[in-house]
Amino acid sequence: MIAAFGRSLIVRGSDGVSQRARPPGRTRGRSLDIVCGDSVTCRRDAPTGEVHVTALLPRATVLYRSTGRGGAESVAANLDLLVVVLAPLPQPDFFIADRYLCAAACAGLQAQIVLNKQDLQTDPDIDVELAAYVQLDYPVLRCETRSPNGSAALAASLHGRTATLVGQSGVGKSSLIATLAIDADEIVTAQLARDDEGRHTTTAARLYDCRGGGSLIDSPGVRDYAPAIDHLDPRSLGFLEVEALAPGCKFQDCRHMSEPRCAVRAAVDAGTMHARRYESYRRLRRLYEELGAVRGPR
User: Fold this and answer.
1) Angle at 143 between CA 141 and CA 145, to 5 degrees
2) HEC states along 59-77?
3) The pTM is what?
4) What radius of gyration do the chain's Cα atoms show?
5) How far apart are CA 139 and CA 254, in angstroms?
6) pLDDT tens for residues 236-291?
7) How crowded is residue 134: how many other Cβ atoms within 10 Å of its Cβ?
8) Tens digits of per-residue pLDDT, 161-210?
9) Residues near 101 by Cβ (< 8 Å), separated by ≥ 6?
């Protein structure tokens, strides 16, 4: 499935032909959750000629987000790579970036970071944050869509993979896909709003084939993102450095918040764990517990 627009899906068959299809009705009182990247089976209704989705095939990977009640909602399926896109404008929200990276780590997805619009003047603090990601072995690429080869590094990293671009509104995800996709004429891009917060150019996720091989899912920009709590590692929440440090804590169930002899907090105090990343962990830990309380026990 390459796109969804309300009650209409766009599916692409093994012959490469795309066509509209209707999602299945409710099964056992529940609607089938189909998202961009899913593999499905279809049948054509003889009287009307409409194509109907009949079943959802098993997924290799799924990216989830949390609902306001603490449940899990699928965002995209069968991904190999998650690409977090940042830009000098709008001002990067690294806390959102961290949450996407945590969701990727817990979903078994590789992840990388792209600083788009590198032709704009970059705040030195952005370079400090990007250096912290490099220390954690996250690849950091720099792109500029106005240059003929400005997205070459990103294109090379996508070869043979299915990836999704995620991030804030206005960072240029759609512009990047327009430089990479075969069917780029269908992509609409926009300028930043006057408040530099960005506009939601993309309103629904869509999968595009890339000229250099691989596929990209363009997702709507966000102002916030919360990973689904049931799909996070309860001990580290997907923070790679916390996962590495946690075995050194006194208590196996250490939350790394105020517990004594916590190896994570000791690393922050010693300057070996990035202080902003630790604050990001603390914020996600509080959200994790708040959403867990709203949802109740499973």
Assistant:
1) 160
2) CCCEEEEECCCCCEEEEEE
3) 0.90
4) 20
5) 29
6) 999 999 999 999 999 999 999 999 999 999 999 999 999 999 999 999 999 999 99
7) 11
8) 999 999 999 999 989 999 999 876 655 444 444 344 444 444 578 899 99
9) 82, 84, 111, 138, 238
